[in-house]
């Protein structure tokens, strides 16, 4: 019946009815204009009935507009939460190597914060999400395995 999509409209209708009843009560008690049923529907004064209907319309319209604004704000809030969740997930996945990395000029081992020398591959894998696959470049194939060199020009 009443959910988040229409609670302000429902509240507007309840408030409009309450205003109507309070106004009728004031007429009956203060101005002593008759009984509650006659005054409730203003059977003797059509202008009073139109005025009350107009007030109810304005209050319900205000409830409708408030509900539309609230729905848009909630949708924007949900979208912001979703985007923030994606951003946090992305930030958690990012690992970046920064700074100066001491590397041996000869064997290419890297010195870590504990002054230990590690193979470059193991150091980079430990500090990032990179995985290595090994192969040989054409120059190394020529030097180490000249009989398997596929890039050798035929003479």
Key structural traits:
155 residues, mainly alpha, 2 domains, 5 helices, rod-shaped
Gap between N and C termini: 89 Å
The biggest sheet amounts to:
2 strands, antiparallel
Strand count: 2
- Secondary structure category: mainly alpha
The average pLDDT is: 78
The ordered string of helix (H) and strand (E) elements is HHHEEHH
- Rg (C-alpha, Å): 40 Å
Overall body shape: rod-shaped
Oligomer state of the chains in this structure: single chain
DSSP helix fraction = 55-70%
Report strand order across the widest sheet.
1-2
Number of helices: 5
Which residues form runs of ≥5 with pLDDT under 50? Answer: none
| Domains (count) | 2
Beta-strand content bin: under 5%
